[in-house]
Amino acid sequence: MPETIMQLKQGIALANSDIAKIEIKSKIDELEAATEKAIRKHQREVDYDTKEFTIEMVVNKYSDGLGEDRNELFVPDYQRDFVWRVDNQSRLIESLMIGLPIPYIFIADVQSSDPDLDGRIEIVDGSQRVRTLHAFVKDKLVLDGLKLIPELNGFRFSDLPASRQRRFKRISIRIIELSDCTEGTRRDLFERINTGTDELKDMEVRKGSAYGSSRLYTDVIAVCADNSVFKEVVPLSVVKRKRGEDLEFTLRFFAYLDNYENFDHSVKDFLNEYLEHNASPSNEKVSELISIFEQTMLFSKDHFPYGFRKTKGSKTTPRVRFEALAVGIALALKENAGLSPGNISEWLFSEQFKTHTTADAANSKPRVKARIEYVRDQLLIEE
């Protein structure tokens, strides 16, 4: 392991000759030069510009094309679900109305060979705020829990006077736009900004907790995440695998398969409860779980043209799409183990399936149920 700057400086005091001191000082100079070079390199990698968008502009860029997953301003799949409670959303709206500053929203200009992504703007940090603005302006949020201006409780956007609506939509939001930065850099920035927040406690935290030593985790979740067919049909980047996304996928598969009908709004709580309540499966149960997972992955490989990908060239897999297809397949196989559907392209590439798996509010109970049962029913109908 290379010596640190502190170790080298301590070495000078312990050196027993001038020659030894000169050699150490030379190493210090080399280390300082290498450090400065690395800092400058990464400074060039993260270029940014400060902008101001009006609320109206932010909402339009987010909402236009949202249902088709073609909105210019979009939430990447590594971001958390829309988890803010109504009172949190309401306080944001109240703060904006009275002119209080809110934190910068970080976005990134996406440069990609995929025409569906190139030129779009990824929300690196601030998705809860953007989605709150969208919900309010589109009349989907009823303000509640406000104490500074309690008179606003019960208001929708459309309940405000027209003059107040116009002024609200003209409020400026401070934006930092990153350019020419890699996906890894964007993820790193997101993680740095949000270090310590409860919403980000995902598989990395579970792995280091009591959950990570449970039999369900070690003998089922981890084993399935390492399955070769799973890796083939569910492409994930190196960065995502390092962050435990493969483990997240397998956990979601089993949790939704076991209890999707009782899913509530919090994905984190839902997954943690599944881990807690099923921590010590029997040998028979372990075999059963691994078997249905393997059957599901093989079924996808044999019958779906791109596995769980959206397109042939896709290098990653959206969580919502995986959940719908994988759990839907498993449910269909439970009803008919010999299931052998014909051409599935009519519904797999349909607008209805796209709506089920690309629209926002992916963490709502009706949507979870609808997308899973849509896949299950389509497979059984074909049969």
Structure characterization notes:
It is a single chain. This protein is α/β, with parallel strands linked by helices and 383 residues long. It folds into three domains: 5-44, no CATH class; 47-198, no CATH class; 201-382, no CATH class. It is 55% helix and 7% strand. The protein has 18 helices and five strands. It has helices at 5-14, 18-45, 55-63, 86-97, 127-137, 162-169, 183-194, 203-207, 215-225, 228-233, 238-242, 245-259, 267-277, 283-303, 319-335, 345-348, 351-358, 365-382; strands at residues 47-54, 73-74, 105-109, 121-125, 172-179. The protein has a five-stranded mixed beta sheet with strand order 1-5-3-4-2. Helix 3 crosses helix 5 (127-137) and helix 9 (215-225) runs parallel beside helix 14 (283-303). The longest helix is centred in the first third of the chain and has 28 residues, at 18-45. It is globular, with a radius of gyration of 25 Å.
